[in-house]
Amino acid sequence: GDDLQQLCDAGEEEFLEIMALVGMASKPLHVRRLQKALQEWTMNP
């Protein structure tokens, strides 16, 4: 659970760094979709 919360709390640069680490930087659409999903999840846990 901590990792998800950390992703949610991450700033834009940090978030993109994490995405690069997990190999998702080359898939901007996936990154945006995940970011949106995380934002919804934080509002509706």
UniProtKB/TrEMBL annotation:
GO molecular function: transcription coregulator activity
GO CC annotations, alphabetized: nucleus
GO biological process: regulation of DNA-templated transcription
Lineage top rank: taxon: Eukaryota
InterPro entries in the cross-refs: NAB_fam (IPR039040), Nab_N (IPR006988)
All copies of domain Nab N-terminal, residue ranges: 1-45
Any Pfam family matching the protein: SAM_NCD1
Record protein name field: Nab N-terminal domain-containing protein
Gene source species: Bracon brevicornis
